[in-house]
């Protein structure tokens, strides 16, 4: 990417974050905390040049049957230079989360000393209890929430880099509510106005894919009577899709103008209050674990 293009992408992101904070003042703190991590990810994505996944190992019939790329070929390699991503990620986290400086110092020292064998963790799916591998002693005493923040932010950068390069998915058939690349359930969706297509967005690798508008992306139940959209009072775009069959919800930008190309990562952060409301109403998100795998 040319320097100018890169600057433009980051400028646009900064403007999006600013605008989202003005429109949703209650999410300003969240946007300001995560903003530097998002900006750093965009910077890294324009410069990283790691090797891609092996497209010859991906079977189109398996994709059609709902087996994501993560279940077909390795997405991470032993020689991946994680330091290149994790150290700048920690630096960005310092801006957004200054109160966590002690833990961030400890994380940075572990990474800099080479004592965190990232591949041990990323080559397999983390177990549901989020236990760190035995070889990760260096970061074991750091608060789990901070460790999760660092790992998820770094993994998003690496997965997005590899997902964006996975051209095999461009014309593949895919009909699931979880991501064709990394297998995580969608974190947010958008419905375009005139053509009324629903697009799901993965918060773990940044991929978008089209999905049936009346089917539940979680349980695949199809019943217009049991699928609803909840809107906050006075809002016409910010909504949550709900399924009465499985009691899941998915935050959705509803009937946005076809000319509009919203940043769904920014939208997901700025609509966190909608998540709280839906969970108070007894619904669960599609992707509750926030980790990379589906079982
Ligand atoms: Zn994904
Ligand atoms: Zn459902």
Q: What is the gist of this entry?
A:
The chain has 295 residues and is of the alpha/beta class. Helices cover 38% and strands 12% of the residues. The two termini are 37 Å apart.
Characteristic key phrases:
single chain; 295 residues; alpha/beta; 2 domains; 7-stranded mixed beta sheet; 12% strand; globular; disordered C terminus; binds zinc ion
Report on the architecture of this protein.
The protein folds into 2 domains: 48-169, no CATH class; 188-285, no CATH class. Helix content is 38%, strand content 12%. The protein has 9 helices and 7 strands; from the N terminus they run αααααααββββββααβ. The protein has helices spanning 3-23, 28-45, 60-64, 83-96, 101-112, 118-122, 144-165, 264-270, 272-280; strands spanning 188-192, 198-201, 208-211, 227-231, 238-243, 248-256, 284-285. Strands 1, 2, 3, 4, 5, 6 and 7 form a 7-stranded mixed sheet that branches. Helix 1 (3-23) runs antiparallel to helix 2, helix 2 (28-45) runs antiparallel to helix 4 and helix 4 crosses helix 7 (144-165). The protein starts with a helix and ends in a 10-residue tail after the last strand. The relative contact order is 0.13. Residues 291-295 have low confidence and may be disordered. One zinc ion binds next to loops. Residues 179, 181-182, 184, 202, 204-205, 207 line the site of one zinc ion.
């Amino acid at each position: 990417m040319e320097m100018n293009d890169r600057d433009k992408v980051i400028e646009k992101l900064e403007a999006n974050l600013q605008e989202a904070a003005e429109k949703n003042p209650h999410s300003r703190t969240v946007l300001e905390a995560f903003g530097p991590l998002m900006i750093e990810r965009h910077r890294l994505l324009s410069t990283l040049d790691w090797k891609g996944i092996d497209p010859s190992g991906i079977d189109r019939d398996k994709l059609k049957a709902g087996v994501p790329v993560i279940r077909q070929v390795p997405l991470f390699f032993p020689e991946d230079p994680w330091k290149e991503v994790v150290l700048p990620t920690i630096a960005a986290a310092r801006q957004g989360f200054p109160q966590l400086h002690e833990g961030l110092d400890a994380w940075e020292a572990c990474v800099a000393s080479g004592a965190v064998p990232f591949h041990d963790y990323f080559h397999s799916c983390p177990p549901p209890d989020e236990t760190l591998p035995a070889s990760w002693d260096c970061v074991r005493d750091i608060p789990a929430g901070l460790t999760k923040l660092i790992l998820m932010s770094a993994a998003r950068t690496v997965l997005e880099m590899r997902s964006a390069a996975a051209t095999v998915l461009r014309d593949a058939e895919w009909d699931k509510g979880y991501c064709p690349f990394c297998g995580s359930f969608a974190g947010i969706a958008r419905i375009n106005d005139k053509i009324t297509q629903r697009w799901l967005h993965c918060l773990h690798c940044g991929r978008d894919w089209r999905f049936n508008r009346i089917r539940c992306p979680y349980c695949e139940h199809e019943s217009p009577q049991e699928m609803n959209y909840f809107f906050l009072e006075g809002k016409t775009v910010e909504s949550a899709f709900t399924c009465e069959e499985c009691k899941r919800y998915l935050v959705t930008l509803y009937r946005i103008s076809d000319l509009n190309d919203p940043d769904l990562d920014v939208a997901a952060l700025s609509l966190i209050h909608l998540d709280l409301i839906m969970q108070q109403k007894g619904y669960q998100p599609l992707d509750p674990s926030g980790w990379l795998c589906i079982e």
